[in-house]
Amino acid sequence: METVPRDTTDAKAVAPKELCHFIGGRKVAGTSGRFGDVCNPTLGIVTAREPFATKAETEAAIADAAEAFPKWAATSPLVRARVMFRFKQLIEEHMDEIVHLVSSEHGKVASDARGSIQRGLEVVEFACGIGHLLKGEFSNNVSNGIDMYSLRQPVGVCAGITPFNFPAMVPLWMLAVAVACGNTFVLKPSERDPGCSLRLAELLLEAGAPPGVLNVVLGDREAVDTLLTDPRVAAVSFVGSTPVARHVYATASAHGKRVQAMAGAKNHMIVLPDADMDQAADALMGAAYGSAGERCMAISVVLPVGESTADALRERLVERIKTLKVGASDDAASEMGPLVTRDHLERVQGYVDVGVQEGAELVVDGRGKKPFGHDEGFFMGACLFDNVKPEMRIYQEEIFGPVLCMLRTESFDEALRLTDEHPYGNGVAIFTRDGDAARDFSTRVQAGMVGVNVPIPVPLAFYSFGGWKDSAFGDLNQHGPDGVRFYTRLKTVTQRWPTGIRKGAEFVMPTMK
Ligand code: NAD
Fold first, then answer.
1. Can you give the pLDDT at residue 505?
2. How many CB atoms lie under 10 A from the CB of residue 307?
3. Span 128-152, average pLDDT
4. Span 481-485, mean pLDDT?
5. In this predicted structure, what is the pLDDT of residue 3?
6. Domain 10-263+471-491: what homologous superfamily?
7. Ligand 1 center to residue 360 CA distance, Å?
8. The pLDDT value given to residue 433
9. CATH of domain 267-452
10. What is the DSSP letter of 501?
11. Tell me, what DSSP letter sits at residue 53?
């Protein structure tokens, strides 16, 4: 059974602590006088206040990163890899503490928090192989006495702007690859759960990364816009909602930066009549309600093909939702924890109201459901809508909570067409025993990540993660081969030595005769 790290202090009795930025290898108190609240969603209380950085404070972090860059870029990849190995070891040693940070600020149940950190840790493991990953190409004697080779060099100061829903994993997607490639980094985590980013920065310093290599600036739009426009920042990696991703992509590219901006989602799962219905229902429970639906790869729409498939699935889902254990994130028995903030809870419950007004059938209503003794926590139960129609807002828009929409279809082609017509294209899944249908689906579907009888097809660290359509802007995805490409610039060198040089000027375009 999952060991659950518990904080033994009575959180309700403790005054909120004030967090600091982490700049140049040390904690720096905020000076703006503007603050955001960090809450414990299980208890529904404010546990910390995070200062919002001013433009000048953000510029100070960029300056430290810029100063640290030349030396770090010139450090051997072997040495950078050793820092990553130590970083991996330190994260493992502090796993319980980081699990507690994720659970107590985000609300994920401990077992899920641990899994999400493990997926981030796997990106650190990938980055440990940086010596191999940075190897270039070499061609000997491409012309008389001429050799040609390519190399990948770090781009400079990189910025990362991360969402609330994976407070350890998403920062690790970015910073592990960026730093291993020889860049320095300024991270602006979500203002709702910044604790993991601050702890990871301390651990990377302890692992041997020099001060200034990783800086954490706490803040809101003022900090973000400074990172997007400052000429010293070479590349911006963003993960968050689609409207903000569009802003980040447009602003940072207009300022000449390389940008990758991963965005919102509405992931569809098609269930064909030949699928194992129990397997499909089990998969849907985890994919729709795990992490309270606050995952960019959560399944939020299920498209059963045929009425009998829909009825069979609905019956099984209703049965399973009845026994779903909603509870405190530090209770080992909980399967679904609270939502991240009161505002977000109200927004998600507001969408359920909208669905009812729009005429969808609310088969299971989780609004207002709280586990015993947690009246103040940001809890709701699982919700299931049936007979959802494509024009409804609950189908069109990302809800980002434990709300599953069932949209009945008559054929595989209709289900595929609906999936493709949806503006988002992050992950998709199909459940079937029919290999031909699965292969056809994987080939034709307009989405970046596809699961065949796998509901949440998140690529492993050595593959790259990214969606299509309104789910991602920019060309290169997160981690894996694309991550290395994003955080390096390609240089190609053509060289010859004096013995290979013929006398006299040449005025024609050189070709190999
Ligand atoms: P968000 O867009 O509100 O915030 C993301 C980051 O942007 C935060 O650091 C925030 O401080 C900053 N930000 C917010 N508003 C801003 C503004 N107006 N200008 C500049 N910066 C701003 O996202 P969130 O609510 O923290 O996270 C949930 C969203 O992230 C969902 O849409 C989810 O689908 C998406 N997400 C996508 C992926 C992916 O890989 N596609 C992964 C995780 C989460």
1. 87
2. 12
3. 95
4. 98
5. 47
6. Aldehyde Dehydrogenase; Chain A, domain 1 (3.40.605.10)
7. 28
8. 98
9. 3.40.309.10
10. P
11. P
| pLDDT for the residue 432 | 98
Domain ranges of the chain: 10-263+471-491, 267-452
Of the candidates 29, 52, 33, 46, the residue with the CA atom closest to the CA atom of residue 220: 52
Distance CA 301, CA 398 (A): 10
What the block records as the tokens of 139 is 């061609």
Q: What is the residue with the minimal CA distance to atom 10 of ligand 1? A: 190
Query: DSSP readout, 444-494?
Result: H--SSEEEES-SS-PPPTTS-B--EETTEESS--BSHHHHHHHTEEEEEEE
Residue 296 designated active-site: yes
Alpha-carbon span 383 to 328, nearest angstrom: 19
Whether 10-263+471-491 and 267-452 share one fold: the answer is: no
Give the position, in ligand 1's atom list, of the atom nearest the Cα of 225: 20
- Per-residue pLDDT, averaged over 388-407, amounts to 98
pLDDT for 13 equals 67
CB of 407 closer than 8 Å to CB of 303: yes
- Beta strands in 13-82, from DSSP E residues, in sequence order: 17-18, 21-23, 26-28, 35-40, 45-51
pLDDT at 513 over 70: no
pTM strictly above 0.90: yes
**Which atom of ligand 1 sits closest to the CA of residue 264?**
34
182: left (phi over 0), alpha (psi -120 to 50) or beta: left
